[in-house]
Amino acid sequence: MLSVCLPGTGGFMPLIDRWLTCCWIEYQGHAILIDCGEGTQLALKKAGLHLSRLDMVFITHFHADHVAGLAGMLLSLGNSGRDEQKPLTIAGPPGLNKMIPALLVIAPLPYPVHLIELSPGDMIPGYGDITISCMALKHRVACYGYRVDLKRKPVFSPEKAEALQVPKQFWKKLHNGEAVQLSDGRIILSEDVIERARTPISVSYCTDTLPMPEIADFAKGVDLMIAEGMYGDDCMAEKVAEKKHSLYSQSARLAKEAGAKRLWLTHFSPAMQNPEEYLENVRMIFPNTEVGKDGIKIELEGEG
Fold first, then answer.
1. Beta strand pairing status for 113-117 and 88-92?
2. What CA–CA distances, in Å, run from 110 to 35, 57, 81, 90, 235?
3. Of 211, 227, 231, whose CA–CA distance to 263 is shortest?
4. What is the pTM of this model?
5. Which position among 55, 65, 208, 223 bears the catalytic label?
6. Could you give the residue ranges of the DSSP H alpha helices within 106-194?
7. What is the per-residue pLDDT across 218-247, written as a single tens digit (0 to 9) for each?
8. What confidence tens digit (pLDDT) does each residue in 262-274 have?
9. Which of 235, 230, 211, 238 is nearest to 272 (CA)?
10. Whether 65 is catalytic
């Protein structure tokens, strides 16, 4: 099960009632944070999230509203008791290896930081059976979208195991994909006792980008698609295109093309005082759409 939260949903600058856009994804007490604008550490606290669980930070791009809060958050993480036994991984587009050391000049840390500069299409492991992949988006600077996939064990069949007279002490190994040899010499394979496979639990996060067909391919079949909604009014299309951002309707169409199960909109313009005003219009395109609010959470369990 993946726990997903948007501690902040605003673009450009934090507001009194809206923190800057970021995303927290947690699995078995280990967390991933995507982006860290000004005030993110306070947004995390307000959302009831535990900074001590943070293992990895992914940066979409190097605009201030997505990275300016890193120094303070890294210091807070050090003050929470983190030490050299628990490193933090920070990954992002090319330029990361210059940007992070510059930040650390004002944020000396008691724990190591591992930096990974990613290329489009890269996939790296997270905690347990999680993998994180990235794609290049279309923004004014190099910008990445991310997808988090949690591989799930297949459905084990006790009936098949019993029919093959497999002792119960071997069931866990078989469920984990290992083969076992029984006392009578028989080799039992994992697939011999599996009822069916299960699809991964998946989340995609693509913001600060022009709408592009590749996003729908990248987010194909995700349980939760998190996408940009700079404005809800289609009359703003020309302005949004100039700044290389996306409208509600554009993200909704991508969610529909992707076959996503649900869509959360985020990264709202500060000029848009009531993001929910346009919700019913966009639900005509993609019914299972929610306008993100700071602190919105969901537990994704997948199907079957």
1. parallel
2. 22, 17, 9, 16, 50
3. 227
4. 0.90
5. 65
6. 158-163, 171-175
7. 999 999 999 999 999 998 899 889 899 999
8. 999 999 999 998 9
9. 230
10. yes
